[in-house]
Amino acid sequence: MKLAKDVTTHLFKFVKVVDIRFNPFDGRSKSVKELLRQVQATRYSKANPKLEIKKAVLATADAPFAHFQFVDGSERKFDAQEFQVKEILSEVFQHATNIDNEYEIEGKSIDE
Questions:
Q1: Is the pTM of this model over 0.70?
Q2: pLDDT per position as a tens digit, 76-86
Q3: What is the pLDDT of residues 33-59, one digit of tens each?
Q4: Residue 112 in this model has a pLDDT that exceeds 70
Q5: Distance between terminal CA atoms of the chain?
């Protein structure tokens, strides 16, 4: 599912923390390195100035890992060696859409 840039920018307002851990010399880290590049986009930081991006470059053989925390306290964790960037972001945006819908039903706005 392809979402418009303005929609994904809005949905990233629901992400509170992105925590990415990887060994840069491990071939399994390809997708998580690209994920880090994408979540650091200027449009996301402008739309969500409170967004916290944590990154840990490891020197161990641990699997690459991505962890997203959302404004409602929910979380999504990914063993990044098993997912492509599109799949990770698709799931993140789907979860953010669910939160956005809940906010709308409750009469809340993420911009408040």
A1: yes
A2: 999 988 899 99
A3: 999 999 999 999 999 999 999 999 999
A4: no
A5: 29
d(CA 81, CA 72): 27
Between the CA of residue 70 and those of 25, 46, 51, 98, what are the distances in Å?
30, 17, 10, 11
Buried/exposed code over 41-77 (b: 16+ C-beta within 10 A; e: otherwise): eeebeebbeebeeeeeebeeeebbbbebbbbeeeebe
Q: HSE-up of 70 (CA within 13 Å, CB side)?
A: 20
Q: How far apart are CA 42 and CA 66, in angstroms?
A: 20
Pairwise CA distance, residues 79 & 73, whole Å: 20
Tell me which residue of 91, 94, 90, 82 sits closest to 31, measured CA to CA: 82
